[in-house]
Queue: 4 jobs
Job 1
Amino acid sequence: MFKKDQPNPPPAAEPTSKVDSLIGREMEVNGDIRFRGGMHVDGRIQGTLQADDDPSALLTISEHGQVEGDIRVPHMHINGSMKGNIHCNEKLVVLDKARIEGEVHYRLLEIAVGAEINGQLIHLGDADTAKPASEGKSPGAETDE
């Protein structure tokens, strides 16, 4: 019934507990951001947010934070507003004041009562999570050649 010859998937990296980068409440950023470690957003960002080859990177968007653009991170906690696609290849925590519009790609998902997600939820299997958050396209993405 249980096969011993199948290896267990490697354990996921724990998210960092420190904040290395902060977008303050009165700050607005227009452009793409690449980061390592922990990033906390209280302000407004228009552009792509991406964690660079850091399996413990954690993006936190507070209840005051607003993001318009795509996000590619291993770990994320959101309590603010987000318009765009989320690619979270480890754990996504959606808190009670969160408002998300767009596709949500996740491996593990925790949603609090009161949170809103308006878009498609797409579960990532073990093969999908083997790639870093910075790689790959959305499932079903096609190109014209």
Job 2
Amino acid sequence: MKRVKIKVNNKQTSPDGSKDVVSYEGKGDYKFKNGKHYLIYNENNKGLEEVKTILRLDESKNNILLKRAQPNEMRQIFDENNKCEFKYNLGTHKMIFITDTKSVEIDLNDKKGKIKIKYDLLQGEQVFTSNNLKVEYRFIDKE
């Protein structure tokens, strides 16, 4: 595994027009296994205190898996060709969402990477939020 510096920025827009930005910046690990890239980090954000988060990037299929461990357990897939249902564990209750991915851009090289995802989060057939998620990482030699 290699150490990386990670920046996550998700701009969310609700149907009523209200906006929110969820961002995270920290260090984590990168590995390449079975033709897929993995970013592994402990996310510290509002509602997410030290939650182990894994991003699996599959360039051949142009899709991304976002997985979080308990207590905020979830497994969300971003795939332009399929709407993907997932359960999001919010401590005392679980919510069911559908990810309707509009676009996925994966740009990786041997020094850094950038991922951009545009998607709608649906509850039933209703848009819960429209999202622009950007994840950037770069390899670090020393901490």
Job 3
Amino acid sequence: MTLRFLQTALLVVVLAVSTQAVAAQETELRIQVAHPLADDAEVRVGLYTDRSNWLDEEPIVGGLAVATDSLTTVIFTGLPTGVYGAAVYLDENRNGKLDRNLVGWFKEPFGFSRDARVRMGPPKWNDATFEVSEEPVQLFIRLD
């Protein structure tokens, strides 16, 4: 056998084992969202995994649930373990975007993981992060 063949075979084995290890480390995330009573609205959640794309780019994964009463749960399954940040809003008119008023402030209730606060700009990544491990994770986020 040639050295090239052995290197390729070893790479295939390593990739197969690492893919199985990643699959075994996926888990479930449940986000309970407290929000104002809303009729015919959706709770939308965006998950981010990196400080460099926090709120500046599209989230790596999004989820939504029809708003019920004043507490709605959005469930994510199959998430890889790691550090995440979540941005959430109540889409009152179900148009798929966080609406703004004439001066640019948000018209719909919104919030962030760990109830990170907005102070002269969006919350800092470190204020909003949480860890997804091999065990199921549950968060509670209050929308203002």
Job 4
Amino acid sequence: MMSGNKSNVNGIASVRPVASWASIFLDYLDLKAHLLAVESREAGSHLIGLVIISATILVLVLCSVLLYAAFLLFLIALLFHLAWGWSALICGASTTCAAMLAFFLLRMRLRRPVFQMTLNDLAKDREWLSQSKTKES
């Protein structure tokens, strides 16, 4: 009778470490899921803001470019006494350069990291994994 209880206690003791590791792993997954949910909402609002701002800028830029291009065309033809065709070519080249400048400015704005909290967590996880690997070796 006593030996049966002893083997049962040893069986429970060997299961507990596995259960605690499983609990830790599940808690870790739960925290990462919550982080993913928070950052998904953050990314969604960031994306909607960028779309609205980009659409507004696009409409305003198109209207402005059309009016400025017409004025620039008139100004070039008047100042340099060029034909309308040459004036239009110079005007098109200058507006193309302005559009490329605007594109590069927007591209620099979009390169900022959005998920700064996740990047910090991943760096901490990498550091922890490298420390635990060196301890095991």
